[in-house]
Amino acid sequence: MAGQEETYKEYDAMVERHRRFILVMCQRASYGREWLCRELLQECYVELLKRMPELAPARGGREELRWVYGRCRVAITRYRRRVARWSELPLTAVLAESVAVGGEVNRLTVDELASCLDGAERRMFLMLAEGADDGEIARVLGLKRRTVVQMRHNIKKKLIKYIES
To answer: How does pLDDT run along the chain (165 residues), one tens digit per residue?
Structure first.
């Protein structure tokens, strides 16, 4: 457990050192769409956390920045490929009917999607649907920011499974 806590501390420190770089990278890849930038940031943070053991402790400066850049490029590319596959899938009849004029999703659909989640995930999903950012969600739910990032990733997986079934 102590080793895992040390990894989280190293992760937090590394993300803090390169936060601006990662943000700019995601902003450029999202072409100015705020929601897409948030998605890409989440993907990058999750990828960095998963690959943290690969980062040699002696790395620093430019080497670390190159590693962060490479991991973020991989995360962004994977996300784009995944989205390309989703766009080829037809919407289910229920979701196709629930999309209102102007691209706003009907509240019934949000509640229906939230029904497949439990407790904190449901609260977090509803906050995300209302436009809350990671920091606000972390404060309200009393969680760490990296926990919010991981929960958002898990919620996306569950929602994809729910929509596909």
So the answer is: 456 777 778 888 888 888 899 998 998 888 878 888 888 998 998 888 888 877 766 566 888 888 889 999 999 888 888 776 654 444 454 445 444 444 444 444 777 777 888 888 888 888 887 777 888 888 888 888 888 888 888 888 888 887 777
Pick the CATH number of 2-87 from 1.10.1060, 1.10.287, 1.10.1740, 1.10.10: 1.10.1740
- CATH pick for 90-164 out of 3.40.50, 2.60.120, 1.10.10, 1.10.3470: 1.10.10
33: phi then psi, degrees, rounded to nearest 5: -90, 115
Provide the CA 91 distance to its chain's centre, in angstroms.
Answer: 22
Please state the pTM of the whole predicted model.
Answer: 0.52
Q: Which residues make beta-bridge pairs with 99?
A: 105
CA distance 150 to 145: 9
